[in-house]
Specification:
Elements: E1 2-7, E2 10-13, E3 18-26, E4 34-39, E5 46-51, E6 56-57, E7 60-61, E8 69-75, E9 78-83, E10 92-99, E11 105-108, E12 112-117
Length: 118
Amino acid sequence: QVQLVESGGGLVQAGGSLKLSCAASGRTFRWPPMGWFRQAPGKDRQFIGSVMRSIGVSVNLADSVRGRFTISRANANTLTLQMNSLKPDDTAVYYCSAQGEDGSWDYWGQGIQVTVSS
């Protein structure tokens, strides 16, 4: 089992920046792939990006955030999402997730609200 807890959300003006963090605990010694998703009101959950098993920066980002968002993983237990040039359309609940052994996104944090005002 892997437990995930997000932090760092809040309210920001358009054009501003926020940094989200995800703290993982449990079976993180296996370094499961981890990623970020978001869900806006009335919309489906959207994939933002993910980082595979090694330490590094984001290796897979959605087109809608590429060039503005960066995902990084400093170690097996910490995943960050740096969001720059935020837009009102980025307003959503943001979720941290980790894959299980079958490659599915099995583990989820509780989600954290990000609100971008115009």
